[in-house]
User: Fold this.
Amino acid sequence: MTTFLSGGTGTPKLLAGAEEVFDPSETTVVANTGDDVELGGLLVCPDVDTVLFEQGGVLDREYWWGIAEDTTETHEELHALADAVGLEGGPRYLPDEAQTAGRELSRWRRFSGVAEFMELGDHDRAVHITRTGLLDEGQSLTEVTRTLADAFDVPVDVVPMSDDPVASIVHTPEESDEYRDEMHFQEYWVAHRADPEVEHVEFRGAESADPTPAVLGAIEEGPVVIGPSNPVTSIGPMLALDELHDALESTTVVAISPFVEDRVFSGPAADLMEGVGFDPSTKGVAEAYPFADAFVLDDHDDTDLDRPVIKTDTEMNDDEDADRVARAVADALEVV
Ligand code: FO1
Assistant:
């Protein structure tokens, strides 16, 4: 059995070409849920869904989120309705008292569906309606995720990191005319394209959230692979769960750096790393993962680490690239 810790792009890209190296029926994927939001009453789980859709063969691989060739009629109609009566777009948080009322899993990340600020495709929306309906019927997020995985014929076991709410909240140094001083990660990323200065990132709820028994069992059995995901907002919410962090200390862990020295392939990882006080580089990734037993680095990354390193070309543009990186991970597992 091998367990992958996954965010929304780097690790799903790796998994897409890893099946010859890591047997899918022997693979567990623990997905980050700090990115999740409730939008118009629907729980949207971007990182869980990217793994489900990729492994189910329906992912939109141009963006690495949503369903390929999806239509957006409902989304467009929501904007047309709002425009018709002058309702402003952008992230529309529900009032403070509503943030902690009702469905617990959606705490601290509840947005109105008026002129919805994230684009939900029509087929994608059907997934969120089904997920939210099953949660409201009493299932846990773990159970619902397994049901959705069956619906998409997903060959790996996909589990959310927790059945409890954890919300990734980005804090800026001060409130400005442009930006509030704290915002959910999806506001920071989707609405503001990572422009606000980051002071720190809070994982709200993490102190009282538990990793699920499925997650802890898979990590304890090991080995664990941390894909080239954003260490702050993709892996950080998992590390904020004390039991999960402790479990990583006593199992075999190989991590792939999403950086080549201080360059990152895509996304806001560098700004977020700097914001939380880590060097935005492979060196900083190694500091963020003190429990990692070995690293996979890019051929052009000469960072001197105090743990074994296997090198390969870590840029992944297709499944062949992912297969190469997966083989490097397998080599790294041999040397720890
Ligand atoms: N990313 C965007 O940049 N714009 C969007 O409108 C958007 C909508 C969206 C809807 C469902 C979903 O599962 C993901 C979505 N994403 C969107 C991606 C998401 O913001 C992030 O890339 C992940 O959370 C990072 O892992």
